[in-house]
Amino acid sequence: MKIATFNINGIKARVNALLDWLDEAKPDVALLQEIKSVDENFPHELFEERGYNVETHGQKSFNGVAILSKLPLEDVVRGLPGDDSDEQARWIEATVVGKQAIRLCGLYLPNGNPVELSADGSPAPGGKYAYKLDWMERLQARAAQLMAAEEPALMAGDYNIIPQDEDAARPEAWREDALARPESRAAFRRIANLGFTEAFRARNGAPGQYSFWDYQAGAWNRNDGIRIDHVLLTPQAADLLIDCQIDKHVRGREKPSDHVPVWVELDL
Question: CA 128 to CA 123: how far, in whole Å?
Fold first, then answer.
């Protein structure tokens, strides 16, 4: 089973690019982020005619996540547990059954910029960086539940986290950015250290491999990228891992997203 994550940066602007990639890559499941559309305006029929079941958790103009699956989607849940007041559409999960069942969690983690700090250097309450770290605490709680279930599961999406310096072409430029600050990296490690396998690094150890290039300052042409789109696997899913790769070439196409797909192949 081929499962991909792709921040498409707006379904309206990127639908043709997305369809072209789906026709080429033929994933069994695609977890999408930043659809930037309410549910009723998402073009379900374009994907259904290609054999995909579609579930969305949308929001007008911002955020929004979706699952496209060639297999039926069961027990769909929208919204990351832990804060009923959070109205941002950043989490969707469902189960698909191949040779065995796997729980799929698609996420769009908050960016966290600008970093707003209190006088003591801690994240300022109510700020975007504090929201990012609070969201990651809730993510850790859900991740712990997935681990406790002792079943195949994955959490994939745009984490807005540069895990290590080798995941950025110019790590020094990101030192004080919310994507690479020590608090952000530590929160990511706490989640991974629950027992998850970071799929890409399990198959690709070399630096210089990225999933995002900014539209500004010729970043793509200079390969000035960062790796912020990740797939975390429970041990039961990691045992099924065949491969994990980044479809870098998609970034060079017409009207691309600033992200590219990352996919895993599992023996499912």
Answer: 9
* H helices, E strands: number in the chain: 6, 14
Rounded to an integer, what is the distance from CA 217 to the centroid of its chain?
A: 24
Tokens of 16: 């043709």
Q: Find where tokens 């191949």 sit.
A: 98
DSSP state letters, 216-268:
STTTTTTT-EE--EEEEE-HHHHTTEEEEEE-GGGGGSSS--SB--EEEEE--
Average pLDDT rounded to a whole number, residues 17-35: 98
Which SS3 state, helix, strand or coil, does residue 64 take? coil
Domains and CATH numbers, the chain: 2-266 (3.60.10.10)
Instruction: Give one DSSP letter per residue of 142-183, joined into a string.
Output: HHHHHHHHTS-EEEEEE-----SGGGBSSGGGGTTSTTTSHH
Q: How far is CA 211 from CA 72, 109, 158, 230, in A?
A: 28, 15, 9, 9
On whether the CB atoms of residues 208 and 246 are closer than 8 A, the answer is no
Which residues are marked as active site? 108, 158
Please compute the mean of the pLDDT values over residues 141-159 and round it to a whole number: 98
SS3 category, 38: coil
Q: How far apart are CA 102 and CA 99, in angstroms?
A: 10
Please report, as a single letter, which amino acid is at residue 66: A
Q: Is the whole-model pTM more than 0.90?
A: yes
Reference 14, options 262, 255, 238, 239; nearest CA is: 255
Task: Give per-residue pLDDT as tens, 200-243.
Answer: 999 999 989 999 999 998 999 999 999 999 999 999 999 999 99
